[in-house]
Amino acid sequence: MEQLTDMPADGAPPPARSSRALEGGVAAVAVVASIVVLLLARGIESRVDSGGLSPDWWPLVLGGTGLALSLALLVVGLTRPPAEREGVQAGTREGWFRAGLAIVLSVLFIEVWGAVGFVVPAVVYLLALAVIFGVRSWKFLLLFPLGVTALIYVLFDLLLRVPL
Length: 164
Known about the structure:
By secondary structure, the chain is mainly α. It has helices at residues 20-42, 57-79, 93-116, 119-132, 138-159. It folds into two domains: 18-84; 92-164, no CATH class. Helices cover 65% and strands 0% of the residues. The longest helix is centred in the middle third of the chain and has 24 residues, at 93-116.
């Protein structure tokens, strides 16, 4: 496993090393996640027989596609030399901290969404993620969370009638 490093004095993190274990591990996690999606999708029941596509159709398509692609990725990761990772920075303590913070915020967002609704938590969540990952432009910090939240709301709640 790659060793976490602090940023060097010049501020540029060291490049990431090639890793067969990393490629195989990521592909294996993707295979398991795709299988979970397929199993969960099979449990979706339709309350109304619409004669068209059932509610489990799209999750089954996504899960099946994910499984096929992740199996291909696993085969490639285990049979070929690891890919060069030029242009990819090695993990730093700051980067892992930001990633961990983003995961914690994601879990918190899901919990708050269930309690108070989608719109306000989504704006706050996207704003917080932008700040965590280094966005400093006030225009972006204002427009990005509002725009993405509005797009998701209009698409799912108004057009597709999927309650958020």
